[in-house]
Amino acid sequence: MMERHIPHFQEELEQLKARLLEMGGLAEDRLRLSVKSLVDRDLTAVERVLVGDQAINQLHIEVDDRCFKLLALHQPMAVDLRSIVSAVKINTDLERVGDLAVNIAEAARRYLQHPPVNELIDLPRMAVIAQDMLRSALDAYVRRDTVLAQAVLDRDDELDALKMKVFRDLLTHMLRDPGTIEPSLDLILVSRHLERVGDHATNVAEDVIFMVSAKDVRHHAEEFLS
Amino acid sequence: MTVSVRPTVTPPPAASAEPVVESPVKIDVERLNFFYGPKRALTDITLVMRSNVVTAFIGPSGCGKSTFLRTLNRMNDIIPGARVEGRVRIDGRDVYDARTDVVALRRRVGMVFQKSNPFPKSIFDNVAYGVRINGLARTRRDLEGIVEHSLKNAALWDEVKDRLQDSALALSGGQQQRLCIARALAIQPEILLMDEPASALDPMATQRIEELIYVLKKTYTIVIVTHNMQQAARVSDFTAFFWLGKLVEFGPTDRIFTNPAEKLTEDYVTGRFG
Fold first, then answer.
1. Interchain pair A79, B272: CB under 8 A
2. SS3 state at A70
3. Which of B68, B64, B79, B186 has the alpha carbon at shortest distance from B123?
4. What's the whole-model pTM score?
5. A-to-B residue pairs, Cβ atoms closer than 8 angstroms
6. How far apart are CA B189 and CA A13, in angstroms?
7. Which residues in chain A have their CB less than 8 angstroms from residue B260's CB?
8. Pairing relation of β-strands B238-243 and B246-252?
9. What interface predicted TM-score (ipTM) does this complex get?
10. What is the maximal distance between C-alpha atoms in chain B?
11. Nearest CA in chain B to A215
12. DSSP-based three-state secondary structure for B100
């Protein structure tokens, strides 16, 4: 039997996937560094986050460009079509995670100018969950694993609840000691950014479910799309 | 090799956003088998085609889609050794019934072929031919009216109205194909079967045919065989995927091309076949 030829198009799809994962890796890395800058009071990490954003932006454009060309030149169908459309959307979410990492690093830089008056309360826990959700969403993408993707969706509420708790705790701090208002506001911003990272991870997970099973689970879509 | 395929047939949903879906059944095929001598070319085909809807047949060469198309107006009758089992009903009447008038059947079920085949006559006479032999026009003015109307419906009138007496063979390939469509429309069929009507045409002529199909489906029931999957996706409301003489999957076109139920269909529409 003749050896099975792998069509050129499939090769291109694999390359697209590889580039998107590279993008995911960079976004994860930036996020980890930005959290480290805050938790370890590490100013050099701040600089590394800011410098690294350039690479994500370049990949963002490259991945979009690949998707455009694949759509225009191959007019893909079925799972291929869903994969490429999902890649466009996941790409945007990953780029936003990169931007949020920059925002967290900038907040950390401001925060570190003050003496550590506040404990970081639940922020490190939020960071762990957000990073976990992002990693799981990317793993689900690689393994085409809808169960794992669903698990990511299920964790989003946890993150939202923690954000509210962080806000209430910091409010108490600020009321008790107005001198902590400025650094506290930066921490509130960080909690908001981490919650947004969770939202983007959720989007990625929803796109994975769409790519694999053609089900649109966004906004409880099954309720009005039937 | 023997392959057992149970077709996935998604019936047109009763309540859908697309009103067209609820149109009445025009062609109803039940357990159709077709043989070329001892060789079985179609196995147990069961599906329904609705009025004012475009149904596309896709599948690799030799899968039986053109054979199936030709069973719908008994064009296969003329092939020696050909044999049909099962039912093809149009408006509920079995076309293989002994009492069926085959000529009348083919008048109701017009056909357009892959290669345009105008008669070596004038443009006018090509369109007028079927009208004359069927006695569908009483006066010369009637005839002229039908020819003009048919050419307009085939989106060819503006290009030929000043040279109706020129030979049809002087037209371009795309124009010849539209002339053949006009010729088919002139005898007022209810169903139009199209066997790769655009496969020999350039992209612009193809686009005109596709636009034409979109307009014509308001009046006719259209069944089209095409090798071009993008074309099937663009022009049809329902798609049937054939493979090795079997119907593998039938359903709304958008579903077949975005989320087919069968692995075979998915492999075919994504080009992973073979």
1. no
2. helix
3. B186
4. 0.81
5. 30
6. 46
7. 78
8. antiparallel
9. 0.71
10. 60
11. B259
12. coil
